[in-house]
Amino acid sequence: MKPFFAILLLWAVSLGFSSCGHLPEIPSRELAVELKEGCDLEQLRQELAYLEEQVNSSPETRANCLIRLARIAFILGELGPKGDKSLYFTKGKLYAETLIREQPEWAAGHYWLGLNLCGLAEEAGPKRGLRLVPQIIATMERALEVDPVYDQAGAHRVLGRIYYECPPWPLSVGDIHKSLRHLSAAVAISPENSTNHLFLAETLLKLDKKAEALQELEKVLKATSHALCPKELAADRRQALKLLKENQWAKAGSRDPAGRSSAPGSK
């Protein structure tokens, strides 16, 4: 079983831009288009280096540049080699903190600060990592106050997963009912996101609401957007099919993304 923060980081973040102000985007790159083709680490490293050169060059683009820096640093920390993770998460944390100082009313700074703190918590290990959970929750709640839609309901998704994965009081903040509330909101805001439905289904299963969980798992199979990379839609669908089968819900004649029958006992 993967550690809590590893699971959280794998699915928490999407790559689409959300409106966070009216400053123009960096004109010479199409980062969102590049990343939609897959999370290419070399492209990301080049983009990070480019933006680090540009961040102080123009007041008009600085804020959007800081958003990209915090986000790319997080993705590089999450997807890159073990030895580089803390370096990138620390960079992302610093860029997000700078953005918060300069644009405190934008959701982006609070959101990317929270995710980079998640990365640092994972690298710190379970005991030290859990100590960062209150700070992570505070940053995500602030992002939620400013813009609940940001990053495909990202703050709701992260908070819902934290309350699902963390141990309950007195060890930590785990609360399955808070998880249900946040993930239900995430699905309502961004129903096209497969991870929102998958996380909600897993919370419903823990609450023994199997019929409702079934509906959410079926929606995972129809979703069109993934929280990390588009190519990972298949991974969410496989997990949904696995949960359906484990609970003896796979319907005769239904098919997985590769076209194979998902009926019980099928090959």
TrEMBL record:
Gene3D superfamilies: Tetratricopeptide repeat domain. Residues 248-267 are annotated as: Disordered. The keyword Calcium does not apply. It comes from the Bacteria. The keyword Coiled coil applies. Residues 200-227 form a coiled coil. Keywords: Coiled coil. This is Uncharacterized protein. It comes from Desulfobacca acetoxidans.
